[in-house]
Specification:
Blueprint: H1 11-14, H2 41-65, H3 72-84, H4 90-93, E1 103-110, E2 113-119, E3 125-128, E4 133-134, E5 141-144, E6 147-150
Antiparallel strand pairs: 1-2, 2-3, 4-5, 5-6
Length: 166
């Protein structure tokens, strides 16, 4: 089955279908192009739309994976704007490095208030607001004293030995 379409009854075509009444002696007469799929405009329009969509898609994929290189004149213009703006300091343009002193050691909650606990090499603790940090869990990162602080930054906290009763 090629397609299911309802066609309007036309009396002049119906008479030609009776050519097989007497058996195999009748003649086949092509009355119209309904049996030819390639004669339909709908097929050609659909094929054209699909072809255009394919070409646009391939062009877009090519542009995505092979962008145009940035010319040096554009880069030079960007550098000129940075040197002409004295308001920007070196700390604003440079990304902060990881902290050598502080590292995240945990979290604390006092009532409804939460804190992120950070420590230095000597074991001194500092409570900071969670709003200064991004993410939670092993990937927590924040900026303290102009440096990035994570669970893996800073020096390892040495355990403090406290003498007590035995």
């Amino acid at each position: 089955r090629i397609s299911v379409e309802l066609r309007k009854y036309r009396k002049d075509i119906y008479l030609l279908y009776s050519s097989f009444k007497g058996g195999a002696d009748g003649k086949i007469v092509n009355v119209d192009k309904r049996q030819n799929m390639l004669a339909r405009k709908k097929i050609w329009m659909t094929a054209g739309v699909l072809l255009v969509a394919l070409v646009v898609g391939l062009y877009s994929i090519n542009r995505f994976f092979h962008p145009k290189p940035v010319t040096e004149s554009t880069q030079a213009g960007k550098q000129d704007t940075n040197t002409n703006n004295p308001k920007q300091s070196a700390s604003q343009t440079a990304k902060p490095a990881f902290s050598d002193a502080w590292r995240i050691v945990g979290a604390a909650r006092f009532g409804t208030t939460s804190y992120v606990v950070i420590a230095d090499e000597a074991g001194r603790l500092r409570y900071e607001s969670p709003s200064m940090f991004v993410q939670m869990g092993p990937q927590t990162i924040g900026e303290i004293d102009g440096a990035k602080v994570t669970r893996y930054s800073g020096a390892v906290v040495h355990p403090v030995h406290i003498e007590g009763k035995k």
